Amino acid sequence: MERGSEGPLKRLAREVAKFGAVGVVGTVVNFAVSNLLWHLTSLQAVRANVIATIVAIACNYVGFRYFTYRDRDKTARTKELSLFLAFSLVGLVIENGILFAAIYGFGWDSSLQRNVFKVLGIGIATLFRFWSYRSWVFKALPVEDEAESSGEPAASGETVAKAEAFIEPQREPLPRPKQHVS
Q1: What is the mean pLDDT of residues 61-72?
Q2: The three-state (H, E, C) secondary structure of the chain, written as one string
Q3: pTM of the model
């Protein structure tokens, strides 16, 4: 089956699965770095977690760009990276804000409690990131092209628009059948 012929729910399910796979890798990196910093350094818990989140964000960008959203528009990489970093920063604030509230607001600062609230923060931030990345950062190409399924580079939206504008004026209206009045 050609990629363009699958339904929107199947495409969304595939995107969610790929996003989740990259997310799992990023989460493992995030937990590994934060727990190493918590146990091997004297950094404050939230500060160490911010560092871990930044490392995970870097890993995630590579995974999203080259795995999850590799078929998306690549023409504006600077804008893409800027938006990715901006939305990732919001996710970082969500994740670490929850951890901050647990530790400094409620005094829940054991290793287990930190990790529980880290999971909660990552979960909420992940919902935000999924929506923002797919809506604003890794925008879908305007037209799926048969060249994509054959392995050839897909035409850019601008190329498709020019081709359609070239073809459009040549279309002639179909002759209308004569109506007989009785």
Answers
A1: 90
A2: CCHHHCCHHHHHHHHHHHHHHHHHHHHHHHHHHHHHHHHHCCCCHHHHHHHHHHHHHHHHHHHHHHHHCCCCCCCCHHHHHHHHHHHHHHHHHHHHHHHHHHHHHHCCCCHHHHHHHHHHHHHHHHHHHHHHHHHHHCCCCCCCCHHHHCCCCCCCHHHHHHHHHHHHHHCCCCCCCCCCCC
A3: 0.70
